[in-house]
Amino acid sequence: MKHRDRAPQQDDLLRPRLVDMIDMRHELVKLAALIDWE
Q: Residue 15 — very low, low, confident or very high, per pLDDT cuts 50/70/90?
């Protein structure tokens, strides 16, 4: 049985999204934005 892909806009109702859990003002988030990851 194959895993069925979900529509991109469909969210789990009880699972918070990662972007909602991250504090974008945190020092490590700001530092990560300065790093050239490529």
A: confident
